[in-house]
Specification:
44% helix; alpha/beta; six-stranded parallel sheet; Rossmann fold; 18 helices; 14 strands
Length: 436
């Protein structure tokens, strides 16, 4: 199959490399010349484990190429994978780039083509894409499909190559046959293929992310209850997660969800639902609770320090919204760090991959070269992101370099009893506090 992908950002690049690994001939298109030049040189503009090798291998094999040209004329399927950021003012998804891509590719189509929305888009977008193409090029022979992505940053390649399911919204047998051929390697390993109409596929993406965001917010509120009554949220999560109807995933308490998907997708779903008079009150409450939680985490640190952090050195471990990515979009650190600075704290932070991006967003912050350097002379150490390497840190060494052995662990990566036994004053999330 010949595949063109418009947009070489996170979704487009991962999808393109994985489709090429399937054996298809793939061209990734982007208007940013510097990005394309970097990709041609083998430089990957984002951090995603394994992506650099996957791109390099498939470029060498001649299955993957990059261009600024709208090279869609020979493609069997064209995937639109441009950004859909939150629109300022109302929370709706900004579809400017999607519609611009549709208008531009219309005149470049040659022969029958399936135009696929891979970007996360609100219900009704596929129909509008079809209208734009038809209006721009009445003679074009095409179908529109919806094929939402369900990639987790940090595990995107595995998610693409071994997904739980593939959701495809199509409304002609011809388009269904093309999409089945695109995903034939996954059919061979019996991956569930969920074929629906276009609107169903579009809603499925938002519904899935909203449900996961709800699970995270639910366990975070349960964590607050556990702190008040002396229960352990991790035992609670295990106790309910072993129920097959609930499941164990996304029941990990923390400082609130962030990233490129959950914040904007919950907002977009709530907006769309209000537009059609089907308000999603649970989702709207999730948004409100999560935003408040991220802001409240700074207060948790301040209270832990006796009500003030003025003049204190605060070491921060982790800045990205989750581990194994350099993505800072809506990361809890963007609320926590400025709030601590506003309260008078001096911040020294370390993140294995995110300090480059963080430096563009966080001001007056000192970046450390290691986790131990972030802890040096710190009056309190705050864990914001649960990078795996933090779990292997030596608590004794941390204690030796800190000014005061105090830790606020917003990801519960340390064992409370062990840390307190070593002489730390320790605070987790949803964990029992020592009895007086």
């Amino acid at each position: 199959m010949r595949i063109a992908i418009i947009g070489s950002g996170y979704v487009g690049l991962v999808s393109g490399a994985c489709f090429a690994q399937f054996g298809h001939d793939v061209v990734c298109i982007d208007k940013d010349p510097s990005k394309i030049e970097r990709l041609k040189k083998g430089e990957i503009p984002i951090y995603e484990p394994g992506l650099d090798k996957l791109v390099t291998d498939n470029v060498k094999a001649g299955r993957l190429e990059f261009t600024t040209e709208l090279a869609v004329g020979e493609a069997d399927a064209v995937f639109i994978a441009v950004g859909t950021p939150t629109r300022r003012g109302d929370g709706h998804a900004d579809l400017t780039y999607v519609y611009a891509a549709a208008a531009e590719l219309a005149g470049a189509l040659r022969g029958y083509t399936v135009v696929v929305t891979k970007s996360t888009v609100p219900v009704g977008t596929g129909r509008e894409v079809a209208r734009i193409i038809r209006e721009s090029q009445p003679s074009a022979e095409f179908d529109v499909a919806s094929n939402p992505e369900f990639l987790r940053e940090g595990a995107a390649i595995e998610d693409f190559m071994k997904p739980d399911r593939v959701v495809i919204g199509v409304e002609s047998q011809r388009a269904r046959d093309v999409m089945a051929a695109v995903y034939r390697p996954l059919n061979l390993i019996q991956t569930p293929m969920v074929f629906t109409n276009i609107e169903t596929a579009e809603v499925t993406k938002y519904a899935g992310n909203a449900f996961l965001a709800t699970k995270i917010t639910f366990i975070n509120e349960i964590a607050d209850l556990c702190e008040k009554v002396g229960a352990d949220v991790h035992d609670v999560a295990r106790g309910i997660g072993l129920d097959g109807r609930i499941g164990r995933k996304f029941l990990h308490p923390g400082p609130g969800f962030g990233g490129s998907c959950f914040p904007k997708d919950t907002l977009a779903l709530a907006y769309t639902a209000r537009e059609v008079n089907a308000p999603q009150t649970i989702v709207e409450q999730v948004i409100e609770v999560n935003n408040a939680r991220k802001k409240r985490m700074a207060r948790k640190v301040i209270d832990f320090c006796g009500g003030t952090v003025a003049g204190l050195n605060v070491g921060v471990l982790g800045l990205t919204f989750k581990p194994n990515t350099d993505d800072m979009r809506d990361a809890p650190s963007l609320d926590i760090v400025p709030a601590l600075q506003a309260a008078g704290a001096n911040i020294v932070a370390f993140d294995p991959e995110g300090m480059g991006e963080a430096g563009k967003l966080l001001k007056n912050i000192t970046f450390a070269k290691t986790a131990y350097e972030a802890a040096f002379e710190a009056d309190v150490l705050v864990v914001i992101t649960e990078w795996h390497e933090f779990r292997g840190l030596d608590p004794r060494r941390i204690k030796q370099v800190m000014r005061q052995p105090r830790i606020v662990d917003l990801r519960n990566i340390f064992n409370p009893e062990e840390m307190r036994g070593l002489g730390f004053t320790y605070e987790g999330v949803g964990r029992p506090r020592p009895r007086p």
